[in-house]
Amino acid sequence: MKAQLRADAYMLGLLYNDPETWFKGDNSDDDAAEIEALIAKRAEAKQNKDWATADAICNDLKARGIVLEDSPTGTTWKKI
């Protein structure tokens, strides 16, 4: 049973990438770099207390189907 489940998951492409990469969706390296740059710009805006810019970046990414998750160690993202 376990072997069949692993084989099926591999066939579906679920075991090709680590979970973090899989949750980010099918993004090209250029897309990922752009998203990371926007997250850095948002972090800078938050540090400068420019809440309007930080919110605008967050809303732009949300409109693209990108969810940001803030934590004490930084911001991560995934595609929904």
Give the SSE layout.
Blueprint: H1 2-11, H2 19-23, H3 29-47, H4 51-63, E1 66-71, E2 74-79
Antiparallel strand pairs: 1-2
Helix pairs in contact: 3-4
Descriptive notes:
This protein has 80 residues and is of the alpha+beta class. It has one domain. Helix content is 59%, strand content 15%. The protein is built from four helices and two strands, in the order ααααββ. The protein has helices at 2-11, 19-23, 29-47, 51-63, and strands spanning 66-71, 74-79. The chain has a two-stranded antiparallel sheet with strand order 1-2. Helix 3 packs antiparallel against helix 4. The radius of gyration is 16 Å and the shape is elongated. The mean pLDDT is 83.
Descriptors for this entry?
80 residues, alpha+beta, 59% helix, 15% strand, elongated
Summarize the structure.
With 80 residues, the chain is α+β, with helices and mostly antiparallel strands. The chain has helices spanning 2-11, 19-23, 29-47, 51-63; strands at 66-71, 74-79.
The main pleated sheet reads as: 2 strands, antiparallel
Q: What's the end-to-end separation, in Å? A: 30 Å
- Rg measurement, Å: 16 Å
Question: How many strand elements?
Answer: 2
Q: What is the arithmetic mean of pLDDT? A: 83
Helix content: 55-70%
Indicate the overall shape: elongated
Poorly predicted residue ranges: none
Q: H/E element string?
A: HHHHEE
Q: What strand line-up does the widest sheet have?
A: 1-2
